[in-house]
Amino acid sequence: MENRWVPAACPCCASRTGGGTCPVCFWTDDGQTDADADVVRGGPNGELSLSMARLNFAVYNACHPRYQDSVRAPRPEELP
Fold first, then answer.
1. Cα angle 51-10-12, degrees, rounded to a multiple of 5
2. What is the Cα–Cα distance from 7 to 78, expressed in whole angstroms?
3. pTM to 2 decimal places
4. Second label for 74, Cα 20 to 30 Å away, from 12, 22, 44, 63?
């Protein structure tokens, strides 16, 4: 049985891109989870809460409309 490493899922778009700044939605994984999704932490995601980023992703395919030109579709292996 082969053990394969599976990249972490982005907390915003759920694509398995492995953390850091997600190329699919442009959210930067700062450790925020569902438990504090409505909190604006500042830091790399500025004035976005995870909840707002998820809503933006549903509407704009990016965590913020300004990143629409910076994102790409998930690759087949990155799909949730």
1. 15
2. 8
3. 0.90
4. 44
User: Residues of 27-44 as b/e, b for ≥16 C-beta within 10 angstroms?
Assistant: bbbeebeeeeeeeeeeee
Report the domain count for the chain: 1
Please state, in angstroms and rounded to a whole number, the distance separating the CA atoms of residues 80 and 76.
Answer: 9
Nearest Cα to 28, choosing from 45, 3, 52?
45
46 phi, psi to nearest 5 deg: 60, -130
pLDDT digits (tens, 9 = 90+) for 34-49: 999 999 999 999 999 9
Q: Which residues contact 36 (CB under 8 A, 6 or more apart)?
A: 50
Instruction: Report DSSP letters for 6-41, one per residue.
Output: -PPPPTTT-----SSB-TTT--B--S--GGGTT-B-
Asked if the structure places residue 23 within a domain, the reply is: yes
